[in-house]
Amino acid sequence: MPEESMNTDRVGSVSSSRYEQIVAELREIVENQTRGQFTIGDYALEIEPMREVGGQERGDELFTVKESLFRLAEDIGLSYSSVKETRWTASRWPRERRQSGVSFTVHKILAVIADERERFAAILTPPEGEARWTADGARRRVGRQVDRPVTPQEKVSAIHTLARDEDVAAVVTTDFLRRPTVVAQVKREDKVRVVEELTRDDHVAAEVTTGLLRRPDVAFRAMRDDTARHQVNHAQVERGRQAREHFEETNPVAPAVRRIERSVEFLDLVTACHAFVAAAGRVVPGMRDRQLGDDERTIVHENVARVRATLDWIETAVDTGRVDVDGELARLLQGE
Predict the structure, then answer these.
(1) In a domain, 256, yes or no
(2) Does residue 73 belong to any structural domain of this protein?
(3) Count of CB atoms within 10 A of residue 261's CB?
(4) What is the dihedral of CA 273, 275, 276, 279, to 10 degrees?
(5) Nearest 5 degrees, angle CA 230-CA 231-CA 232?
(6) How many CB atoms lie within 10 A of CB 40?
(7) What is the domain count for the chain?
(8) Which domain holds residue 115?
């Protein structure tokens, strides 16, 4: 018989039949341990009965209660927290309500159910499809995190618990974002929020934006947004201004260049006017006998208004040397 077939009837290093023998013996041991833990709890209750007001033990933090339980714990070789826990669990399960075959751990987990009738009924009804209570079954019943997550939500909860440390969370997030199939399942708005959070640092944002704008499709879509386009234009103008200021402040040939620039600006201005007149001379005759629609006429009139405002601005700059832009002209130039 192949080795693989022989291994199918084994659990770990033992055969299935031997495993069943071990389970039977251990269940008896667990039953004895359960009785022993309840006995410890009952004796702790006898020494210090629960003092409950509104569902909370009023005296649990009192010096006398803690001192008595601490002394008992030391005398029997257990920790104070262990004695305190068994005492509380015993108080939640009267002797007649404790179930044989159900571990003390399950009793302790289900003990958090506040309503007595619900609690006593719950321990009699294992989860659907299960022959007996397990610790994870009890945790699911009371809404606690399980040791062995099965459902997607349980796995998510387990990951959140493991990633409470920010360093761990950062590594896990980085690994997840490298998996295309994971990223593909993230909603668009969630992806946007992730990118916004990751680019709060201005240096990171600048580096990411530079990389994204090198992608033609991304750059095209981004520039369809008026605000983004205006910000880019403003940044370009501002960068040019800062470069000019730095040059004028630090370069010894700046005065001579300024004289040359005046001539260059004059030529640029004349060239721009000539180009506009030439373009209009080509385009306007082609509109002979053509009737534009209402929307088309509105758009043309808006642009003509912008041209007029620009021409007035040019004349003012030429005559006075003032190039300031008032609010109305700025809105016209930006197409608002």
Answers:
(1) no
(2) yes
(3) 13
(4) 160
(5) 90
(6) 22
(7) 3
(8) 3-146
Considering the domain architecture, whether residues 131 and 85 belong to the same structural domain is answered as yes
Inter-residue contact 247 to 254 (CB < 8 Å): yes
Domain C-terminal end among 164, 185, 206: 185
156 and 55 co-located in one domain: no
In a domain, 168, yes or no: yes
Measuring CA to CA, which residue among 134, 97, 103 is closest to residue 36?
103
From the list 71, 128, 136, the residue with the least C-alpha distance to 110 is 136
Number of neighbouring beta carbons within 10 Å of residue 67? 11
In this structure, the answer to whether residues 11 and 133 fall within a common structural domain is yes
Q: Per-residue confidence of the chain (336 residues) as pLDDT tens digits? A: 344 444 568 999 999 999 999 999 999 999 999 999 999 999 999 999 987 654 455 554 566 888 999 999 999 999 999 999 999 999 999 999 999 999 999 999 999 999 999 999 999 999 998 999 999 999 999 988 888 888 877 777 777 676 677 776 677 667 766 777 766 666 667 666 767 666 677 777 777 777 777 777 777 777 777 777 777 777 777 776 777 677 677 777 667 666 665 666 766 777 777 788 888 888 888 778 778 888 888 888 888 888 888 888 888 888 887 777 676 666 666 655
Listed in sequence order, the residues at least 6 apart from 162 whose beta carbon sits closer than 8 Å to its beta carbon are: 168, 172
Nearest to 314 by CA among 272, 260, 258: 272
Cβ contacts of residue 332 below 8 Å, gap of 6+? 305, 306, 309
Does residue 249 lie within any of the structural domains?
Answer: no
- Quote the tokens at residue 309: 């405002």
